[in-house]
Amino acid sequence: MKNSNQSIGVIFGNRDFFPDKLVTEARADISRLFEELGLEAVMLGEEETKLGGVETHADARKCAELFKANRERIGGILVCLPNFGDEKGVADTLKMAGLNVPVLIQGYPDDLDRLDVIRRRDAFCGKISVCNNLRQAGIAYSLTRKHVVHPSDASFVEDLQQFVAVCRVVGGIRGCRIGAVGARPGAFNTVRYSEKILERDGISVTTVDLSEILGAADKLAADSEVIVSKIEEIKAYANASLVPQAKLVQMARLGVVLDNFVEENTLDATAVQCWTSVQANHGCNVCTSMSMMSEELSPSACEVDVTGVLTMYAMQLASGSPSALVDWNNNYGSEDDKCVLFHCGNWAKSFLKDAKISTAPILGTVVGEENTYGALDGRTPASTLTYGRITTDDTNGKIRAYIGEGQLTDDNLKTFGNRAVAEVPKLQKLMRHVCREGFEHHVVMNASHTAAILKEAFEVYLGWETYYHEAPEV
């Protein structure tokens, strides 16, 4: 997963008529916190500028050069204001560095009994000036929940951790490489998308005809070392006792070729033509292979849903855990805030307590159930839920999204395939938004509460219009 061990650039703002020792104290506070959180800081040494702060244009040039030299490592920048700071110095640093990464602005609080010249900070005011300058320069930035906050405050620790996740999402989406395997199913206009709009945001799509994948799979000998190894991997992944050996071979062949396609093209995610050509021409489902890839944080979506798997990848970056593509599928009796989430069987096994490899009965009515071995069967237990969807709005030439949070429940559910019960506050309002705005029937779920991270990344840094359903008040 990209940017999982990113570094954070740190700018310590300073102003000459405030106590310099406040900068030294701030460096110690930030260094201590970064060490506790396992973060690496890229910052000026105390000997490179006065106490390692940024105050003058010359300081800004030195800090910018440091950041540029570490461009590949830096995922975001923290602006720390121990005192009022120099807003021009901060803005100049960011402009000259040109990293185009997320920026978090933090200012220290004053103590009511220490407003003398020895300890006075005025960062409450200075933060406003820094933000004003960044807005003038067109530099996007994030804010802490409290206007001024000490680095040791629990709310800032959470703010910083959320900011690091925002950096992962933004850095991962920019330059994301998606593989589109085959053509979308003819009946699924809902998964159409604009490759050109995605490309404009740094997201590229590598296509391959399904015949190339199936042709390469058919050439692999059933007793070859790579196929035998993949079969053992499948058996270790989920209960495969119901699957005939011949079908395991076909599943393994697909898995090996898809793995090679991902590696050869350095892909972050894949969207696969899962039906009906695979079943008709190869005799099995590709669900297990997609599930295994998603579990390994290389997300894979069915029905060539490219923007669906982009959403999976974004949620995975935010949470650090696998995502799943699901259908908003059924009402849950008469309960207005609950519904059934469903798919044939390609969810990562993190969502399936007792996953077993079986068939896809609905698809089997069309292609023969014996040709659908490879679909996973399992129920998702209760957990936290973040849901959402990215789409290309081709009419208006932009990317849009919706996100929200809820819960997965243990409510009774008697059916097959991959299934879950979701509880979403004001679900009926959400469904009206999905329908009114023309979003797809596919949605992505992640066992986390990370909607705020996605909202910040999508809107502030990627410029995507994002609806946050029932967002909590800040």
Automatic annotation (TrEMBL):
Supply the InterPro entries for this chain: Fuc_isomerase_C (IPR015888), Fucose_isomerase_N/cen_sf (IPR009015)
Q: Which UniProt keywords apply?
A: Carbohydrate metabolism, Isomerase
A single Pfam family it belongs to is: Fucose_iso_C
Decide whether keyword Zinc-finger is in the record: no
Question: What one GO molecular function would you report for this record?
Answer: L-fucose isomerase activity
Task: Cite the L-fucose isomerase C-terminal domain residue spans from the record.
Answer: 341-469
The organism's superkingdom is given as Bacteria
Which CDD domains does the protein's record reference? L-fuc_L-ara-isomerases
Q: Which GO terms describe its cellular component?
A: cytoplasm
Q: Give the GO biological process terms.
A: fucose metabolic process
- Name the chain's protein: Fucose isomerase
Read off the lineage from the record. Answer: Bacteria, Pseudomonadati, Verrucomicrobiota, Opitutia, Puniceicoccales
